[in-house]
């Protein structure tokens, strides 16, 4: 608990952006991938999945059960309009 309460140490430039970390830190074991968050956000933006289906995909690898699905849906609704979709 001491390490968690002291903040983030090390190379902070390697961390994903804050808007992605809002999703990845909801799991206590940090198994939600930043790349998966970006992919689901793009899918919600393009209308391929709705917010709840995207939330279920993001919550699937969380083994601890601390992932908050209702907060995730709210974050997806807020983040999807801000993302731009480029061709790969």
Describe the secondary-structure layout.
Elements: H1 2-5, H2 18-24, H3 34-46, H4 51-59, H5 69-79
Helix pairs in contact: 3-4, 4-5
Which class best fits the helix and strand makeup? mainly alpha
The average pLDDT score comes to 85
Q: Let me know the largest β-sheet.
A: none
Shape: globular
Low-confidence stretches: none
Oligomer: single chain
How many angstroms separate the termini?
A: 41 Å
Measured as a percent range, the helix fraction is 40-55%
In total, the number of strands is 0
Radius of gyration: 14 Å
Fraction in beta strands: under 5%
Order of helices and strands: HHHHH
Question: How would you explain this protein's 3D organization?
Answer:
The protein has 88 residues and is mainly α. It has one domain (15-82). The protein has 5 helices and no strands. It has helices at 2-5, 18-24, 34-46, 51-59, 69-79. The chain is globular and about 40 Å long. The mean pLDDT is 85.
């Amino acid at each position: 608990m001491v390490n968690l309460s002291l903040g983030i140490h090390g190379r902070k430039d390697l961390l994903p952006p804050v808007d992605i970390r809002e999703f990845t830190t909801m799991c206590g074991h940090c198994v939600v991938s930043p790349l998966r968050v970006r992919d689901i956000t793009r899918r919600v933006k393009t209308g391929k999945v709705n917010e709840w289906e995207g939330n279920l995909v993001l919550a699937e690898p969380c083994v601890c059960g601390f992932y908050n699905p209702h907060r995730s849906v709210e974050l997806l609704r807020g983040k999807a309009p801000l993302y731009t979709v480029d061709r790969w």
